[in-house]
């Protein structure tokens, strides 16, 4: 086989086989477009040969379509100019470059096909493809820099990918996203230390070298910043620099370089010590011109040098601000391991010991702090080393649960010169630590001093400054690669680094603690801010307080983990582990309590959320059991009473996740923040049992975040309320993926008013039937489901495995067609206990079908709700029969049906049967008079032993009816405990919604001065002349609006009629702003008002903050509008009123939190009147403050 990777064939090779017409493609035989050639010399259109190779031969080899020469790997494509008489010499030169590139690819493949974790030893290399972590596009952040400490950025990794975060493979990072037309030259990839940036770079290079991806790139130059640092003070041309880094390529002139499609990879911008002065550096475009490395890099990044070359830069987040945003075409972020990938890592690492893998995974899950940190692949490796050792040597020892404990064990395990740590007794361990004490403390000094400078890479001069002899470092590095390692780089120079930033931070804390115990004042001076500055007087509490104060001054939080580790080291148990390395100091219970009190006091000060959350972390490291209480106290503080900034939302969600306790209730509405803020708080659902998310403006993307909470192992969530959010079918489908997961243990799911239709319901029921063992309650109220919902649900109800006990379907547009299906399900279901079918047009015919199933002996239904189902007395005879035969029904609600006295008489015949076990009966708004009360009193006497509660509110029992009921209550055998007859009166004897009619009056103290009131404050008219109203704090100053005096919080109906140009008609909270012309001041697009815009016989409403036209009914023209408020159900409905006919216009679904006040926004030259719906009654009969 030749150096180019060719296979021996019988076909001729070389230039002798070339087509006579080299201006045509050897595939399509047309004139060359974007011409390229391969090592055999034949020419092709780039697109033609690429498509030809997309279907390789069965042998897996690649062949030349012209000469049939075969190649083991995909040949390099060399860009060519159009052929001419002078081209032959340059082509021969290009072929030599091609052969060099083949060797270059082979070299890169050998270099990157395996990764090494820790000390290099036999069998320790791991194939790269086994541990590869995908990249995620981070949209909308290309102009921002995250300078917070990287541990806080793990909260981003904890989130499930949403629609805003598109997952891509690293091989596709230079491809535009869907809908993008721009080309991508420069990609900047950010990610915290240890998250997998370099591994992703290696994956890209390996796939390219193996011919699997990005074959349009002809050459890749790998230029790590840690190696560029070695020549930062030297003068270079770009050609010479590339030759020094890749001498095997032999790129001797600019023409060769310009002819190639090249890519530059700059890994580790955060390790750079090169200034990168984009503002002042001179411009240069000649690759042969000599300058500083700084000038070369800035011109290459800006596109002055090799503008057609691709650039990939990787960096930790805090260093990305070194690259101007205008120089970056695409920003990507490595998010690390998700939960399944964490488990996969441990199972692959311990593939030969499944039991050990399971025990390690189980322990990681018991400590949320460790579990969150394991989003970093390098921390998974550290945890694996520590836990494998501890579970394999001494199973009686307490397993580490904090970061301090984990890193302490990590250092202990890997400080032995023979790389073995057999769990010797404490004295042996102490002697061992003492033998390595000198070099470990020198490493601690190096770690501490360079942490302040922000350096992660160290060179010979850095080691010398800390008293570390280079030869000593080489010997020590050879036996402790897992802590401090060396690498041979450019010109065989050696660089050093800690295996991870957290190891550097831990050893920094060890060094600070050592300096304190040895009273080394010079080293501690930067931390000493207390008034007492003498070593003899400084206490451990004062040291910790001073370090916290110092850390709070940092904008980047670079000392946060050092402070956390120091608080962990203050515990006697951790000092005992470090005996021999640091001197044990006082750690009395009183001293610990004093430190804890100090941390709690600091939390009350005004500080950023990241800094405050770190104080919670310090409490966790000190193993105090009050962390959860402190978090709740913090949330109850005035910080939460104000609008929470986005950073606070992210920090609180992160803190709640790593707390070792499970929240009983997480109520998202209690957090005053924006829609994005609520989205950032959602990950906290993972650690609560009951999540109240109703009316929080959640959308489809929110459901993606909740899938993780439902499917995590273990999943704590038992109740989820997402009512009154615009989830739609797409959101519910996403949610269903979590509900169907076998780890999901959800017992209650509420999706009332979420815009779900049959499509979403089908996906939901399918998921619930695949995981049928846990859900007990399902609420799908006020969704446009139709009768098809019953077809989907019924098979599950008939299945004895499905444990559903409560099903709520009010306002789902069901008809009598659903009742027969439900009856069949009720006849066979052994689990359903409660069924709510309120506000559906079931009619008498539907109820007859339904009660056929209720009378079946297999039916165990105990609670049935049928308010507002358009039932009449015709249903009552069937109901009576069912009550006589049903031994299980305990509660029946027939409110808001026109049963009349005749129907009640029939119903009470069944109530008097000895088989009837009914305990609660609701008959509000059923038009019952004293005649019906007489029938009821008789039933109470004949069967007094079961009925406990009776609701006759909003009926007209009259004095005689009340006397009859009172007499029945006096019967010694009567068990009735609650009788409700409030709001009784003639006004209630009305059909339909008008039975809820209320009397309203306009409040002159709220009226804008352009509005005049008349007709006993029941009419308002707009005028140009201002009214002489006195000043009042509740008066509208800018919008022409007026509110009613009465606050409503029950079931209320009223009507208004407008004339002129138009008006806004609706309700609002009393706290609506009275001045200003913003959205929060008017009856319009705000979260405090719900209104209908009326004009020229058409209607509009603000739906999701967008003014939307409501389809106009075909009924005759009318300027009269009916409004129906069901405050408990959270609905506000509007109707067009024509004579006695109400035509529905629109209904708002939400959750009301305080009384609502009817309001009017009157347009110019218009007037609005409150219409009389009920007959005038005395104030003793009717209180309108419902």
TrEMBL record:
Gene Ontology terms, MF aspect: ATP binding; zinc ion binding
PROSITE patterns per UniProt: B302_SPRY (PS50188), NACHT (PS50837), ZF_RING_1 (PS00518), ZF_RING_2 (PS50089)
A GO CC term attached to the entry: cytoplasm
SUPFAM superfamilies hit by this protein: Concanavalin A-like lectins/glucanases, RING/U-box, RNI-like
Gene3D superfamilies: 2.60.120.920, P-loop containing nucleotide triphosphate hydrolases, Ribonuclease Inhibitor, Zinc/RING finger domain, C3HC4 (zinc finger)
All copies of domain RING-type, residue ranges: 25-68
Keywords: ATP-binding, Cytoplasm, Leucine-rich repeat, Metal-binding, Nucleotide-binding, Repeat, Zinc, Zinc-finger
Domain called B30.2/SPRY: residue spans: 980-1177
Pfam family, one: PRY
Protein name from the UniProt record: NACHT, LRR and PYD domains-containing protein 12-like
């Amino acid at each position: 086989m030749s150096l180019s990777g060719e296979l021996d064939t019988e076909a001729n090779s070389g230039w002798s086989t070339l087509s006579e017409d080299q201006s045509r493609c050897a595939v399509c035989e047309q004139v060359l477009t974007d011409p390229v050639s391969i090592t055999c010399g034949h020419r092709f259109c780039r697109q033609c040969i690429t498509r030809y190779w997309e279907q390789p031969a069965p042998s897996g080899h690649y062949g030349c379509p012209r000469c049939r020469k075969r190649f083991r790997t995909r040949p390099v494509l060399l860009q060519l100019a159009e052929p001419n008489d002078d081209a032959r010499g340059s082509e021969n030169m290009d072929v030599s470059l091609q052969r060099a590139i083949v060797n270059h690819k082979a070299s890169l493949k050998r270099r990157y096909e395996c990764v090494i974790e820790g000390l290099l030893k036999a069998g320790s290399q791991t194939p790269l493809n086994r541990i590869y972590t995908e990249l995620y596009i981070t949209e909308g952040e290309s102009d921002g820099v995250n300078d917070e400490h990287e541990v806080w950025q793990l909260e981003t990794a904890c989130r499930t990918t949403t629609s805003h975060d598109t997952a891509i493979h690293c091989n596709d990072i230079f491809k535009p996203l869907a809908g993008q037309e721009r080309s991508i030259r420069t990609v900047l990839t950010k990610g915290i230390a240890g998250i997998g940036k370099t591994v992703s770079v290696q994956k890209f290079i390996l796939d390219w070298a193996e011919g699997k991806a990005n074959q349009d790139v002809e050459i890749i130059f790998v230029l790590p910043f840690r190696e560029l640092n070695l020549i930062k003070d030297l003068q270079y041309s770009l050609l010479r620099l590339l030759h020094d880094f890749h001498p095997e390529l032999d790129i001797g002139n600019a023409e060769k370089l310009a002819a190639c499609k090249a890519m530059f990879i700059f890994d580790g911008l955060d390790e750079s010590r090169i200034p990168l002065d984009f503002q002042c550096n001179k411009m240069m475009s000649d690759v042969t011109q000599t300058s500083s490395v700084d000038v070369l890099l800035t011109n290459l990044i800006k596109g002055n040098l090799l503008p057609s070359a691709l650039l990939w830069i990787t960096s930790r987040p805090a260093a990305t601000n070194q690259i101007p945003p205008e120089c970056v075409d695409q920003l990507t972020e490595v998010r690390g391991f998700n939960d399944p990938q964490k488990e996969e890592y441990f199972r692959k690492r311990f593939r030969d010991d499944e039991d050990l893998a399971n025990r390690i995974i189980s322990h990681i899950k018991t400590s949320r702090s460790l579990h969150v940190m394991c989003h970093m692949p390098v921390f998974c490796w550290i945890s694996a080393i520590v836990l494998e050792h501890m579970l394999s040597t001494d199973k009686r020892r307490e397993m580490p649960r904090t970061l301090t404990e984990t890193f302490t064990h990590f250092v202990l395990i890997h400080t032995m010169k023979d790389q073995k740590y057999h769990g010797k007794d404490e004295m042996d361990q102490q002697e061992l630590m003492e033998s390595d004490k000198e070099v470990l403390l020198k490493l601690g000094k190096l770690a501490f001093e360079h942490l302040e400078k922000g350096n992660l890479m160290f060179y010979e001069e850095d080691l010398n400054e800390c008293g570390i002899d280079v030869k000593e470092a080489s010997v020590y590095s050879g036996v402790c690669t897992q802590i401090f390692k060396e690498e041979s780089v450019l010109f065989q120079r050696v660089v050093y680094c800690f295996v991870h930033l957290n190891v550097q931070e831990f050893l920094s804390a060890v060094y600070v603690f050592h300096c304190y115990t040895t009273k080394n004042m010079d080293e501690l001076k930067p931390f000493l801010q207390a008034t007492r500055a003498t070593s003899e007087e400084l206490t451990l509490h004062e040291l910790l307080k001073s370090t916290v104060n110092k850390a709070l001054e940092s904008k980047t939080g670079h000392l946060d983990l050092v402070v956390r580790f120091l608080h962990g080291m203050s515990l006697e148990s951790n000092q005992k582990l470090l005996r021999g390395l640091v001197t044990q100091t006082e750690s009395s219970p009183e001293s610990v309590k004093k430190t804890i009190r100090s941390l709690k006091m600091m939390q009350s000060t005004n500080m950023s959320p990241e800094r405050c959350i770190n104080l919670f972390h310090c409490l966790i490291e000190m193993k105090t059991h009050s962390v959860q209480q402190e978090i709740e106290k913090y949330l109850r503080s005035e910080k939460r009473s104000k609008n929470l900034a986005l950073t606070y939302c992210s920090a609180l969600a992160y803190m709640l996740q790593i707390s070792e306790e499970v929240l009983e209730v997480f109520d998202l509405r209690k957090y005053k923040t924006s829609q994005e803020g609520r989205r950032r708080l959602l990950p906290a659902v993972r650690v609560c049992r009951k999540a109240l998310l109703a009316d929080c403006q959640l959308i489809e993307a929110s459901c993606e975040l909740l899938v993780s909470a439902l499917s995590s192992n273990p999943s704590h969530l038992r109740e989820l309320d997402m009512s009154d959010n615009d989830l739609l079918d797409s959101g519910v489908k996403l949610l269903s993926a979590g509900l169907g997961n076998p780890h999901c243990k959800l017992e209650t799911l509420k999706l009332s008013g979420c815009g779900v239709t049959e499509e979403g319901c089908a996906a939901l029921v399918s998921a619930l039937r695949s995981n049928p063992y846990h859900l007990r309650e399902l609420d799908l109220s006020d969704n446009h489901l139709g009768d098809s919902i019953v077809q989907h649900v019924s098979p599950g109800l008939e299945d004895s495995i499905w444990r559903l006990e409560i099903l709520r379907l009010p306002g789902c547009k069901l008809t009598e067609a659903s009742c027969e299906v439900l009856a069949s399900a009720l006849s066979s279901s052994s689990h359903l206990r409660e069924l709510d079918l309120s506000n559906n047009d079931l009619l008498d015919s539907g109820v007859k079908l339904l009660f056929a199933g209720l009378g079946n002996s297999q039916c165990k239904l105990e609670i049935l709700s049928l308010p507002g189902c358009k039932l009449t007395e015709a249903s009552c005879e069937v109901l009576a029969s069912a009550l006589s035969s049903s031994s299980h029904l305990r509660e029946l609600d027939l409110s808001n049906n026109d049963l009349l006295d005749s129907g009640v008489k029939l119903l009470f015949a069944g109530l008097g049967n000895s088989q009837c076990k009914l305990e609660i009966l609701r008959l509000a708004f059923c038009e019952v008079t004293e005649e019906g009360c007489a029938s009821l009193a008789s039933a109470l006497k004949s069967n007094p032993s079961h009925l406990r509660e009776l609701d006759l509110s909003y009926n007209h029992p009259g004095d005689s009816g009340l006397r009859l009921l009172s007499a029945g209550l006096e019967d010694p055998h009567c068990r009735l405990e609650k009788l409700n007859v409030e709001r009784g009166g003639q006004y209630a004897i009305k059909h339909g919604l008008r039975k809820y009619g209320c009397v309203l009056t306009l409040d002159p103290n709220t009226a804008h001065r352009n509005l005049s009131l008349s007709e006993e404050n029941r009419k308002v008219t707009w005028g140009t002349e201002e009214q002489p109203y006195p000043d009042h704090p509740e008066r509208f100053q800018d919008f022409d609006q007026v509110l009613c005096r009465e606050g409503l919080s029950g079931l209320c109906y009223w009507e208004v009629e407008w004339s002129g140009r138009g008006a806004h008609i609706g309700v609002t909270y009393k706290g609506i702003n009275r001045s200003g012309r913003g959205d929060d001041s008017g009856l319009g697009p705000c979260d405090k008002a719900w209104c209908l815009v009326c004009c020229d016989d058409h209607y509009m409403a603000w739906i999701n903050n967008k003014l939307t036209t409501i389809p106009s009914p075909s009924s005759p023209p009318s300027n009269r509008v009916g409004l129906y408020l069901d405050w408990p159900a959270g609905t506000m409905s509007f109707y067009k009123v024509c004579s006695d006919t109400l035509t529905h216009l629109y209904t708002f679904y939400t959750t009301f939190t305080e009384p609502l006040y009817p309001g009017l926004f009157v347009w110019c030259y218009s007037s609005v009147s409150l219409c009389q719906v009920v007959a005038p009654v005395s104030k003793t009969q009717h209180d309108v403050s419902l």
